[in-house]
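thread: overnight batch results

M.L. [08:02]
morning all. the overnight job finished for the chain we discussed friday. pasting input first so we're all looking at the same thing
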Amino acid sequence: MNALIMGMGNTLLSDDGIGIIIKRYLEQKMNSFNKIKFEETHWGGFRVIDLLRGFDYAIVIDSIKTGRVPEGEIHHLKTDDLLPTLRLNSYHDINFITALHLAKKMDYKIPSDIDILAIEIENNYTITENLNSVIRNSVITVSKKVIELLKSKGFITDERINFENEFISEEELKDYYLPEAETENK
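M.L. [08:03]
and the structure it wrote out:
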């Protein structure tokens, strides 16, 4: 059994990068777990199919902007919570849930069990490599939730992961902003 932790978003658009930042944070903390792989993407659709192929379980971390709950709130969703649609995200791509349906129709081995952790954001339009303080504080909270999910599925059986602080400082956060070329080719 193997698991995927996938961060989605755009680190150049303020809080939209939270999924990728959390993925990078966890990857650094969990580099000794062989059955857990890490991927990130700023694309949806067809790219998601490629990243999910071959895994038994996946956790997808992304931002969401509903405007119905406070900023920083964590939505824990399953794929059944998402509505399928034929609407395209761009002229050349499809949305996340449509990609999953397509992969199943094509008999690709993708996880039947996917947890989606979406962090409520307000700002996904300001060009900056920085998270606001509310969203930055959710990095540890979401990371702990990921660990709980991995433990509940049997991918982690010991207590090797230590979170020294309850939040990440703005200075420490800079370590998780890598040039995109370095991260897309991992």
